[in-house]
Amino acid sequence: MMYKVQVRFLFHSDIKIKIPEIYDDSIFDKLFGILEDIDEKYNSYSENSYIDKINKNSGHFVKVNDETIKILSKIIHLSKIIGGEYDITIMPLIRLWGFYKQNPILPSLDKIKKAKRLVDYKKIIIDKKRNRIKIEKNQEIITGSFIKAYAIEKIVEEMKKIGIKDAIVNAGGSSIIAIDEWGIIAENPEEEREILRNKKGMPIKITQNQYAGDDEYNDLFEIKIKNKSYSTSNQKNTYLLINNEKYGHIISPKTGFPSQNKQVGVITENAFFGDIISTGMYNQTPEKFYEIMGKLSKEMEISGFLIDKDGEIFYFNMEKYF
C-alpha cells in the first residue's frame, strides 16, 4: 500500500501522521486540528488552558470541564498504582534543578527537601459534583509527560471513526501508535556504540541502523505492534550538564533527584496510559518495575522493558512482540 505523510510541530515535538494515499489531504487538517484543540485547552504551557488556570489559582477551586476531570482522575489512579513515582505536581523540583535556566547549579539538599513538600498528587482535590479542581497553594501541575500522548490517542480515535484501518502516528519517537501492524525500532539509549545486557548477563543483539550507515547510531531491537501504542522514556537528549555531570529531566518525586536508569519502553493499547506508565517506571528499581507492571497487567494489557543504570535490561511480557 502507498502512504502519504504530514509532519507538524506541536507539543515541542514533530508529530508525524502516515495514512493511506487514498484519503484526501483535508484529513490531515482535521487530525492536526484535534491536536491543536487539546494543546489549547489542556497543555499547562498554554495561556488560559484549564491546567494553566488551575496553576495560576493554586489554593483555590477552579471551574473546569468534564474532560479535565476525566484526565486528572485517571492520572491520579495510575499514580497510586505506580507508588507515587509518577507525580504531575513535580514542577517545583523541575524548576529547582534549573531546567528553565541557562546556567543551572546543583541544588542543595535543603532546597530539594523544601521543594518536595509541594510535590504531592494526593493534594489535588477533584470536586466532580461542581466540576472544579484545586491544588495546594504554590503547587504546580506539569502536563509534559502525558498531554502529547493524550492528544494523539484522540486523533487515532478519530481515524477509526473515519474508517482508516492502516496508519501510524509518531509523536517525536516517545509515543507511537500503530493502526494495523507496524514494525517499530527501539533505539539504543547510549550515545556511543555499547552492548547492553539482559538480566542473565548475556549480550543483547544490537543491529546497526541500516539507514544511518554510521557506527554511532544503533538499534536496540525491533518489535511488531498491531493496534497498540509504544511509549518510551529516556534522558539521552534532555538533561542538564552541571559540573561535567549529566542530570536527566525525569526526577523522582520521592528522592528529589533525577533517576539514573537509561530507558523504559511500554506497550499498551492506550498511548495516554503508556506515556504515564513509562515515565513512572523510569524511577523504579528492577524489582519494583516487575511488581508494578504485574499490578498494571490486572487492569490492562501491558508489556515493557527497563534498562537500568548499568545497562542491564529487564523484560516484562515482551517476547510476543519481537
UniProtKB/TrEMBL annotation:
Its EC number is 2.7.1.180. Coiled coil: none annotated. It comes from the Bacteria. Magnesium. Can also use manganese. It holds the Pfam family ApbE. SUPFAM superfamilies: ApbE-like. Mg(2+) binds at residues 145, 275, 279. It is an enzyme of class 2 (transferase). This is FAD:protein FMN transferase.
